[in-house]
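Reply to dn_fold:

You asked what the input looked like. This is it:
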Amino acid sequence: MDKILLCSGLSFIITFFAIPVIIQVAKDKKLFDKPDGRKVHKAVIPTLGGLGIFAGFIMATLLGAPQSASSEIQYFVAASIVIFFLGIKDDILILSATKKFIGQIIAAGILIKFGGVIINNMHGFLGVYEIPHLASIVLTFLTIIVITNSFNLIDGVDGLAGSIGIVTSFIFGAYFYYTGQISYAIMAFSLTGSLVGFIIYNFPPARIFMGDTGSLLVGLINSILVIKFINYASNGQSALQLESATAIGFAVLMLPLFDTLRVFGLRILNRRSPFSPDRNHIHHFLLDLGLSHKATTGICVSANLLFIGIAYGFRSIGTTYLMAFLFSIAIVLLAVVYLLRERINKKEKSESNIHSFEKEIIKPQKTFRILSELAEAE
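and this is what came back:
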């Protein structure tokens, strides 16, 4: 426990003191995220917060990881470095979606080939258990890439990606600590400490964004943690075996995963690249309801915690039924938010049309009055 506290504290201190320096350098070098029609912020804000998160996480993980797990941790660090350089280049110089995707495949390949991060069992989901080796590799690749991008896609509101990352990494860390998997616990709590140090500067109103460097790193580490969690929690020899572990792992990442899968699906149906930007994310819907960044972040984090509680409470019904139950609740809640947004949009459009109609009526009246006054003057 002392080592975990030391690692999380060290990561917090490194990130907390690194961020102000990064903000100043970003301002001096004009490395800003400029607002546009799709983005919700109105001012130029530095985007290199992920640099501080990476520094705190890597230092704490390398210093705290047990020697017995050093061979495994080195591959996790190697994949993180690939993602770090991928993100930092995209934050400074725009990187094409194809190059980002290739970089993510390389990072995922390192984790699968050398790090032992692989899904070889569905643990009863849809009645499937052991799966062929090739299918397990493909499934693991997809899982890592989707989760890695999921945090990148929800990073659209001040404090949201960081807050969700704190929740997910803390829960995984607590499980691994309880089950004696200290290396994974150190990795999870090191990320938690870094994100807490970062969120102080990112909470509304944000002074810095984590950028792709931070969001992709948070997604990658969470993909490792959730796969390891599912494998260990479903293992009969684990100190804390959990029924429906696959569904519980999904529930921990519910908000980013559900939103990403939904948005990817809509883009593909509209014959667009799944990585093309738009304003169809859940946080955009909540902002359109007139909610502030703080309220939007609070609602999203609360909803994610709610899904975790539901998954844990109903874990005895089985993985397939629990996944279906979670998706059903998510769809209903999303439909409510969507309908509220549509009602507000219709109301605003109606008011806008009334104002336009009134202007069209008032204009001729004003013109007629002015002409009358001129005629009387003559």
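The chain has a mean pLDDT of 87.
Hope that clears it up.
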